[in-house]
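Subject: Sanity check before I submit

Could someone independently write out the structure tokens for this chain? I want to compare against mine line by line before I put it in a report. The sequence has 115 residues.
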Amino acid sequence: MIDGIRYLRSVVNAAPMNRMIDKVLGPDPRIESDAELGAYCKAVATTNFHPVGSCRMGLDSDPLSVLTPQLKVRGIAGLRVFDASMMPSIISANTNAPVMAVADRAVDLMMTGAA
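---
Independent answer below. Compare away.
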């Protein structure tokens, strides 16, 4: 992110862009050191994605998966997870519809006693 800020500053300071800029809103142009820019990034950066993958679903052969394909938590009887945390990776769209589909399927699995 620090390199990105430095690059954007070079773009903003170059003609013809510099003639179109009235004021830089952030980070303050006086902030120059890596430490200061890093602190700025930590203070203002957030995600606009819906986090996924903290309870990754996968096959037994996937050492990173904690959920079975039936959404059961490995090693804990009677516990299932069916929110966005089960997705192995972020999708390229909003997660709302896929999570609703997963939840609907999870209810079917629970009601039929699926393994």
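---
OP: Matches mine. For the report I'm noting this point. Helices lie at 2-13, 34-44, 96-112.
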